[in-house]
Amino acid sequence: MAIMAFVITIAANFYIMLRGISGGIEVFVKYALPMLFILAIILAIKTLTLKSDYRSAVEGLNFLWNPDFEALKNPKVWIAAAGQIFFTLSLAFGAIVAYASYIKSDDEVTLSGLTSATINETVEIVLGGSIAIPAAATFFGVAGVGCRGAIRCLQSRIRKPPRSVQQHVRKPWRH
């Protein structure tokens, strides 16, 4: 199944690239971008209705929208934030260069940039935050609440196989 999906993806990419920029990429993006937003909204709704045996997605929203301002005193938080923003900007720079060719000479560059940045960040924070963080909180919890850390939560939920299965598992060779 995975190989078939890979082959279909490669064939679709080849077809889009073969058609060129105006006939391939522009046409694909014209339909794919709205579909991406629709799927993100559906996924956000599905995520917000998730429940596990121990918690719900509401804990993730509480974690997201009720920040711990004491954490700002930790220098590691600032280093992680700087790394994140430089990574994001490096990816965005390629998109800026690609889409800058579509700006007409009489367009307002500042307004276009501000509009696209505002829409981008709003979608990232609202949709992205409504999907990833509540889903992670539902299944792994928030640090310090319930299980401490994702690995411990997973370990507590994974059941050991029956004795008959354990006997057939090969033990690693030891020196």
User: In terms of per-residue confidence, which ranges show pLDDT below 50 for 5 or more consecutive residues?
Assistant: none
β-strand number: 0
Distance between the termini: 40 Å
What would the average pLDDT be, to the nearest integer? 77
Strand portion: under 5%
Supply Rg.
23 Å
Largest sheet: none
Number of helices: 6
Which structural category fits the helices and strands?
mainly alpha
Query: What are the secondary-structure elements, in order, as H or E?
Result: HHHHHH
**What would you call the shape?**
globular
* Approximate helicity band: over 70%
In short:
The protein is mainly alpha-helical. Helices cover about 75% and strands about 0% of the residues.
